[in-house]
Design goal:
Layout: H1 2-23, H2 27-39, H3 43-56, H4 61-74, H5 77-89, H6 95-107, H7 111-119, H8 126-142, H9 146-159, H10 164-176, H11 180-193, H12 198-210, H13 214-227, H14 232-244, H15 248-261, H16 266-278, H17 282-292, H18 300-312, H19 316-327, H20 335-347, H21 350-356, H22 363-366, H23 368-381, H24 384-397, H25 402-414, H26 420-430, H27 435-447, H28 451-463, H29 468-482, H30 485-498, H31 503-512, H32 518-531, H33 536-548, H34 552-565, H35 570-582, H36 586-594, H37 604-616, H38 620-633, H39 638-650, H40 654-667, H41 672-684, H42 688-701, H43 706-718, H44 722-735, H45 739-751, H46 755-768, H47 772-781, H48 787-800, H49 805-817, H50 821-834, H51 839-851, H52 857-866, H53 872-885, H54 888-896, H55 903-914
Helix pairs in contact: 2-3, 2-4, 3-4, 4-5, 4-6, 5-6, 6-7, 6-8, 7-8, 8-9, 8-10, 9-10, 10-11, 10-12, 11-12, 12-13, 12-14, 13-14, 14-15, 14-16, 15-16, 16-17, 16-18, 17-18, 18-19, 19-20, 20-21, 21-27, 24-25, 25-26, 26-27, 27-28, 27-29, 28-29, 29-30, 30-31, 31-32, 32-33, 33-35, 34-35, ...
């Protein structure tokens, strides 16, 4: 006890003495100590001293400045921004404060902060302003804002082209414009003058990387990291360079350093998955790949590694779930599409597989080097010509390698080169045991309509003892392609006799029985789902089959029972929710899905079904929020983008729809459908130039579609070229006889003064296809001389939409103009009952009641005027009511507020004033 007391007392005294000693130094002394640490290249120690200086004198400009600059030197940019901002607030005037603040904000992608610096440039020197422009420009380019970035860097260059920032700006622009030789030349010249120029090192590193000079890129990034040890983004660039150089052993300790600091960093987990995959640690590779995609961003490489690793672990359904997420982002010729096709075959999705099948089976067991080449060289660059060269070189080195021959066949077939079949045949002649290769070859024979060769394989297997089941499976697929449904059924039945739990046979046999024997199809799907609850194809077709038979309640009971045994199976939950939705039990569908919204393994299908359920339930805001959130998690899912854009279209938020379409185009560049949508929304936002830009893209591709004709018509209307609009809309209507195209054409005809032709177009279309929107347009086209026709169309429209406020209001007004006041009151009263605070209804109701000299008119007209009505008839009627009451002051105010004062209105106003 006494010893402990002595020890405690000693510590207390030591602490007290330490505090006393600290208190002896001034802020300036700490700054001097920190500067010595900087001279000795000990940035961490310097930061400690500068912190002490700030603690002693918090409002010291010098202390804040030194601390901020030290943080920049260390790479701690968030801390640097905070301290340099504080230094400026305290009155710092040193140019280095502003330039380094711009540097920090650029690294942090603080575009708002950078813009503030640009806007407040009046007191900056040219050199400082040039530095701010440089960091703002590079930050914009890093965000893919090419126009802004080029403009800012161009401004920087114009200030002083030969200065450091002028040269850096030129180098960065050259890099962005892929003028790598020029970028390399400029940065090397800068580094000759100043070997520790951190910005020049980063640009040079990126330039090397872009030229696939990964070794020099690593060395260059390493120099930067040595100077700025906490600049983790650049450290990640270095790691990526090492991975591309296949220096996995060197990359791993650097990556571990990053992950010790940022345990949940998605990109770090992707890199870790690549390293583990290289080491053939497929379980760890799968874990880190899935961790990478838990964040808000989608990492395609991680998704592919997850899919391929799951395949190596024979977790086929998980492999499919991951690979299909990147399918739309990859060309059909991509190697991952090949593996996805094999996975589809294993799950029985042979129709899908036959379309995209490009062989890869057999290459993964012994030829890891090939997988590395494919992942690093082909997946990243999509350079299939180089891939072909590598395969031919591999064949020269090892002509008896069946795997290389098979890969070459797959590569040729991916380019629609039928000679690839010969390479697959060669692979099988070298190693006949490659069963999956032979099955894939048979599917490729079918794909290229060489049915006899596929038949030969099937016949051989059926005659064998060890491949009989697979032979009948292949025979069933062949007979399905030939349209011999009954024979195909027999083959799949035979497979199930030999292998009662063969998933592919169950699925294909169920599909073939959907029309002729629904009960059997249902039984087969139920057996399939029990055996493989995550089989999405089976779940989906089973649900649709049951819905078609009005048996959704039965399928719900079946799935609910299964879920009690498979409580954590997400696909079963999705299937159940989909069945609730198909059965129109939307609250139950939404409840089922929202109950599991906190799970980490929610696939993209979850969000699609949930969003669709909200849409079907007419909850647009929830649907929009759902699809928006889903896109954050699955940015490469094309369907989610279309769903989100569609909701914005329904809301008529065309500006937001345009932005969403442009965002989607960033993910799917060159996508024809999105180009059409952008052209459409540009037109809806009255930007004819923007619309024509994308119409030109589509024309250059040779794309023809009635939707494109309709967009061209809308652009012509914006440009007031109504004859051209009629031509475009006529073409659209002739290609697609839809209500919308008829409406477009009628409006264009009306603009050209062809009133009768416009009416005829709508009348003819309505004779075959009733449409409320079209009836309303037709009614609006009729002149006062055709008032009866106008009323007839509104009344027909009302039959189709009895509570439609606009129809009720317009119909009431049409009767009012014909002095049918009783009828007018009947319709407007109903509109008022539906929505009593709707301004157009209040205006019409008030005017009609006033015409009927109904006392209630005063209250209704007052509500309309107080709600901001600018309708002249409403204002005149209300003024007249007030005059009758003797409330001349209020009447005068109402009359004074009438904005429209043509001769007729002026005469009415004068008449009322004379009564006061």
């Amino acid at each position: 006890m006494n010893n402990n007391k002595k020890l405690t007392l000693s510590i207390a005294v030591a602490v007290a003495l330490g505090l006393s000693a600290c208190g002896d130094k001034s802020s300036q002394e700490y700054i001097q100590m920190g500067e010595k640490s900087i001279e000795n290249a000990n940035t961490a120690e310097a930061i400690v001293q500068f912190k002490n200086a700030v603690r002693v004198e918090p409002k010291s400009v010098a202390a804040r400045t030194h601390l901020g600059l030290a943080y920049v030197k260390q790479g701690a940019y968030a801390n640097a921004e905070k301290e340099l901002e504080r230094a400026l607030e305290l009155g710092a005037s040193d140019d280095s404060v502003v330039v380094n603040l711009a540097l920090a904000r650029g690294k942090l992608e603080d575009h708002t902060g950078l813009q503030l610096l640009i806007d407040n440039n009046s007191n900056m020197s040219d050199e400082t302003y040039q530095g701010v422009l440089y960091y703002a420009g590079t930050a914009a380019l890093d965000e893919n804002d090419l126009a802004t970035g080029q403009d800012l860097l161009g401004q920087a260059i114009s200030i002083a082209p030969e200065s450091r920032f002028g040269q850096l700006s030129k180098a960065y622009l050259s890099y962005v414009e892929k003028s790598y030789a020029e970028s390399e030349q400029i940065t090397k010249a800068l580094l000759e003058k100043s070997p520790k120029d951190a910005e020049a090192l980063v640009i040079l590193g990126h330039t090397y990387f872009a030229q696939k000079n990964f070794s020099d890129a690593n060395d260059t990034f390493a120099k930067h990291v040595k100077m700025v040890p906490e600049d983790y983004p650049v450290l990640l660039f270095q790691i990526n360079s090492l991975l591309h150089a296949e220096k996995f052993t060197e990359a791993e300790p650097l990556l571990d350093k990053v992950m010790s600091r940022f345990k949940s960093l998605s990109l770090a987990h992707q890199y870790k998955s690549q390293i583990e995959y290289h080491k053939q640690n497929y379980r760890d590779a799968l874990f880190h790949a899935e961790e990478a995609n838990k964040g808000s961003l989608e990492f395609a490489v991680a998704r592919m590694i997850a899919g391929v690793s799951a395949y190596q672990l024979n977790e086929i359904e998980q492999s499919y779930a991951n690979l299909k997420m990147v399918e739309d982002a990859l060309p059909l010729t991509h190697p991952v599409q090949k593996l996805l096709a094999i996975v589809r075959v294993k799950l029985g999705y042979t129709d899908e597989a036959a379309e995209t099948f490009n062989l890869m089976e057999g290459l993964t067991e012994a030829d890891v080097a090939f997988l590395q080449e494919t992942s690093a060289a082909l997946v990243d660059s999509n350079d299939f010509n180089t891939a072909k060269d590598l395969l031919e070189k591999a064949q020269q080195l090892d002509p008896e390698n069946a795997n290389v021959a098979a890969q070459k066949g797959a590569m040729l077939l991916s380019q629609q080169d039928v000679s690839g079949l010969s390479s697959l045949e060669q692979a099988l002649s070298i190693d006949p045991s490659l069963a999956d290769v032979e099955f894939s070859l048979a599917l490729q024979y079918l794909r290229f309509d060489q049915v006899e060769k596929a038949q030969s394989i099937a016949t051989e297997w059926i005659a064998s003892t060890d491949k009989k089941s697979t032979g009948h499976l292949l025979q069933g697929i062949i007979n399905t392609k030939k349209g011999a449904t009954n024979d195909a059924k027999e083959d799949f039945e035979t497979v199930l006799t030999l292998e009662p739990e063969n998933i592919s046979a169950l699925y294909n046999l169920a599909r073939l029985n959907e029309k002729d024997d629904v009960a059997k199809a249902k039984t087969l799907y139920e057996k399939l789902i029990v055996l493989s609850p995550s089989h999405l194809g089976g779940l989906n077709r089973y649900s649709l089959l049951q819905q078609g038979q009005n048996n959704s309640a039965e399928s719900i009971t079946f799935l609910e029972r299964l879920i009690t045994e498979e409580k954590d199976n997400i696909n079963l939950m999705l299937g159940l929710a989909q069945n609730y939705r198909l059965n129109n039990d939307l609250p139950k569908a939404i409840e089922t899905l929202t109950n599991i919204e906190n799970r980490d393994d929610l696939p993209d299908a979850y969000w699609i079904i949930l969003g669709d359920s909200y849409l079907q339930n007419k909850n647009l805001s929830a649907a929009k929020a759902t699809f928006s959130k889903a896109i954050e998690q699955f940015p490469k899912n094309f369907i989610l983008h279309l769903r989100y854009i569609g909701v914005l279209e329904i809301e008529q938020s065309f500006d937001l729809a345009l932005q969403a379409a442009e965002d989607a185009y960033q993910v799917f560049p060159g996508n024809t459908r999105i180009e059409m949508l952008i052209a459409y929304y540009e037109a809806r936002n009255k930007n004819e130039r923007g619309s024509k830009k994308y119409l030109t893209k589509l024309a250059d591709k040779g794309v023809e579609h009635p939707f494109i004709n309709a967009i061209a018509g809308q652009v012509a209307v914006l440009e007031k070229d109504y004859e051209a609009a009629v031509e475009h809309f006529s073409e659209a209507y002739s290609l697609e006889n839809s209500a919308q195209n008829a409406i477009y054409l009628a409006r264009a005809l009306r603009f050209t003064g062809k009133q009768k032709e416009a009416e005829t177009v709508l009348e003819k279309h309505l004779a075959t296809e009733p449409n409320v929107k079209m009836r309303m347009l037709l009614a609006s086209l009729y002149t006062e001389n055709s008032a009866d026709k106008k009323i007839d169309q509104y009344e027909l429209a009302l039959q189709e939409s009895p509570d439609n406020l606009i129809i009720l209001n317009n119909l009431a007004w049409a009767h009012y103009t014909q002095n049918n006041l009783a009828k007018a009151k009947q319709y407007i009263s109903k509109a008022y009952d539906v929505k009593s605070d709707y301004l157009p209804v209040l205006e019409t109701y008030g005017v009609i009641l006033h015409a009927l000299q109904d006392e209630k008119s005063e209250d209704i007209l007052k509500q309309a005027v107080n709600a901001g009505s600018t309708d002249v008839k409403t204002q005149l009627a209300y003024a007249e009511v007030l005059i009758r009451k003797g409330d001349h002051d209020k009447a005068k105010l109402v009359l004074d507020n009438i904005a429209v004062k043509n001769a007729d209105v002026q005469r009415d106003i004068s008449k009322l004033r004379s009564q006061m």
